[in-house]
Amino acid sequence: xxxxxxxxxxxxxxxxxxxxxxxxxxxxxxxxxxxxxxxxxxxxxxxxxxxxxxxxxxxxxxxxxxxxxxxxxxxxxxxxxxxxxxx
Amino acid sequence: xxxxxxxxxxxxxxxxxxxxxxxxxxxxxxxxxxxxxxxxxxxxxxxxxxxxxxxxxxxxxxxxxxxxxxxxxxxxxxxxxxxxxxxxxxxxxxxxxxxxxxxxxxxxxxxxxxxxxxxxxxxxxxxxxxxxxxxxxxxxxxxxxxxxxxxxxxxxxxxxxxxxxxxxxxxxxxxxxxxxxxxxxxxxxxxxxxxxxxxxxxxxxxxxxxxxxxxxxxxxxxxxxxxxxxxxxxxxxxxxxxxxxxxxxxxxxxxxxxxxxxxxxxxxxxxxxxxxxxxxxxxxxxxxxxxxxxxxxxxxxxxxxxxxxxxxxxxxxxxxxxxxxxxxxxxxxxxxxxxxxxxxxxxxxxxxxxxxxxxx
Lengths: 87, 360
Known about the structure:
The structure holds two protein chains of two kinds.
Chain A: E1 5-13, E2 16-21, E3 24-29, E4 41-45, E5 48-52, H1 55-62, H2 64-67, H3 69-82
Antiparallel strand pairs in A: 1-2, 1-4, 2-3, 4-5
Chain B: H1 10-23, E1 28-34, H2 35-43, H3 46-49, E2 54-61, H4 63-66, H5 69-79, E3 84-88, H6 102-107, E4 112-114, H7 118-127, E5 132-137, H8 144-157, E6 162-166, H9 172-180, E7 187-191, H10 192-198, H11 205-210, E8 213-217, H12 221-236, E9 242-244, H13 256-265, E10 266-273, E11 277-286, H14 295-298, H15 314-318, H16 342-345, H17 350-357
Parallel strand pairs in B: 1-2, 1-7, 3-4, 3-5, 5-6, 7-8, 8-9
Antiparallel strand pairs in B: 10-11
């Protein structure tokens, strides 16, 4: 029910946009968002754009390696201390 | 596809699983509240990747599943009126009522139309001025703003033959009720698209009052594993709090415009949830100012007495205390083509997801 999908905004006319999901075109209402521009990615739900996706955050969230590097280091040290492999 | 494929990356998934295995020591149960999460978790086989210390249980976040059978019965009663066209999302059409379903009524000649968006229902209303159009408004905070937007549009355009039958509900009361009921839980994987609208503030009671962690998650494997890792770290460090693992979509404040639409059109009311009973201020009722667009206020109808099926343990499954495989009817009497309970009908129902991906 809450299924929503990232879509790229292709054209805008008043409060309606044509958006593309992997090449398939849909209409999405922009009633719930301000400042949507062509080329933005929005999250579409039941015909409404409900949020803009943030490219910086998207990149950031993929940096899982770096984000947990410190944690990994700590665990490696713990492994050494205990002389056993945790994983 | 952008924003999807990169979150299914095998290497990232492997790395996250390794990290979870390293950190996880205590035996814990985490609940994914959202039916969409249940679907993803089963589809991607997430439980098979996790160490034995972590158990995932499905929660009450499937709107079709938690809705009262009486709601379906009333929708059927509307469908039986000659001057009514029912417009609905596809999820509801095969949900069994006490003696019929919308699908069966359609086969008997009722005008029941599946729409993708409330905006399509508005167009049907514009094109059929001699009929009353009833839109079945179902869903949580993600979907309710669409209904609000539709009602506001109908009022502005003077489409007075358009009425919403609201079964909209909000998530936090159910999440708190589960803990109050003593369901054994150590943390919540919080619903990503509900939080897209509401912001993360709605969960503050969960750590503050109940001492449980709450991490907002997206719907891809990397998202879910990251949320699980964050919860495990919280629990191991005894530092339970609300965190967001879905920052590319979820802003701390949510979507203010959508929240304002909700506030203008709806007010809270007590509502019934399958498995949990009546929860105070957990449902959304259309405000008096928009009564013209409220099916309950505008179209009076007699509803047949509600009859529940014996043997269906949908309620227990929605509370997370039982698993679909505990049900005697599962995959025998009750299947997606012949469902007994709503949890088997809806694609995001636990029984449907288990039937499709995890039957053995």
